[in-house]
Structure formats: C-alpha cells, structure tokens
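Teaching assistant's notes for section 4

Start the section by putting this record on the projector. Ask students to predict, before seeing the second block, whether AAA+ ATPase domain-containing protein will look compact or extended. Collect guesses on the board.
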Amino acid sequence: MNGESLEAVGSFFNDFGGRLAMAAGSCEVHGAASVLVRTGAAWHCPRCLEAEMAADTEAMVLAESRAWRMKVAMIPSKYVGAMFPAATPAQKGVRSTVASFRDFILRERQWATLIMTGETGTGKTLLACEFAQALVSKTPLTVRYITAAGMISEIQATYGSRDGKSSETEIMRFAQYDVLILDEIDAYRATVDADMLLTEIINRRYNEGKPIVAISNQALDGLKQFVGARVHSRLYENSFPCAFTWGDFRRAGAA
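Reveal the predicted structure now:
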C-alpha cells in the first residue's frame, strides 16, 4: 500500500472517530452506564438495547417456526382463517369439548382422541382446522391434517419407490406429529394392507402418547366395522366425543 493510500485510510478513520463520543446516563432498571454513540445522539441503556434485540430475535424465530408448522399442517386453503359458527347451545357444546381436549393434551402429553361425528356439512372439518391453526399459533406443537385415504395413499406411494422414500419412513412421519387430524377415517378403501397401515399408525401414536382427532360421518359405536376392532378400542381411551347433530350448514346457507 503506497503513502497516498495509507493517508486516505487514516483520514477515513480519523473522520469516523470524530463522529463518535462517549455518553453517560442512568437507567431506572439497570443503573448507570457509559456507551459509545454518534456525536450528538442520545444516550441509551446498553442492557435494555440488548434485551430489545434479543426479544426481536426471539419474535423472528417464533414467527419462522409458526410459518413452518403451518406449512407442515397442510390445512386446506378453504379453511385457513375460517371460524366455526357456534350459534346454538349444541354447537357451543362441541366447541367446549374441543377446548377441554386441548387443555387435556397440553396439560400432559398423552394419548387422547377427539372424535367428531355427524352428517356431511355440519362443520366437523371446519372446527378441526380452526383447532389446528390455534395450536400452531399459540403452542410449539406440530399438527398435520389429512384424510385417512390420503395418508394411506402417501404411504403406499413409496412401494417400489426409487427416490429414497420407504413405507417405514412415511409411517414414522405420521406417527410423530404431535397431533394428527384424520378426516373421513371411515371412508378409505378397505384392504388388508390399508387396514394394517391405519392400525400401525394408530398403535404407534397410542404407544408414544400422541393424540389424534378423528372425523367421521359415522357414530362412534358404528366405526368398528370401518376401522377394525383394535383401532376402535383405542378411540375410546381418553376420548372426547363431539356429536354434530344439526343440519348441513351449506344447505342452510343456500336456502
């Protein structure tokens, strides 16, 4: 570096240094401190600034976590941000049951089932998706929404796969979400393999204390012929049944 270059660098640092000065002040929380500030700038508490920066970083991390978990949840776009219209005592009752289920699984991570049954169009999926979004927004839990047929198809798609996926990997994935919402649990195409996959996932979740939400057009007692004896038995343990006994919301809206 030649003399002219060194002179330019020195001039830069002298100019930069001239813009800074030590400032003293006192914080009601952290007491007195001296900090380096731009000339003429107000004093600030370094420990308050550090706490503020840490809070901003934490908020950013939490926002990124929520965004990632929302993506993982696979909530159908139709239900994103939608609210279940609890207008009648019966509808308020199912919302209360969902809240009880939420409190139960948050109090102690253990197996539990929220069983939503009722006719088509009564808001079962809507309320389940509202519940899922609340968990993603207010807790660190991972949630996944999917139909039983969709879940089974995703696992079966790995049979003979050459892209590195395996049925075991997919089974483990569905077994490990903190909360799994299985819609239309009675409506998958029943085969020996499909029955085995559903039973295996339910059993693994049961053994690991991972709760599920099961949605069906069938009453709980009538589900046995669709999901098998072992799954049906699991559904009764720590169960929170919600019977959607009113009419089709969509028909009411079209009337």
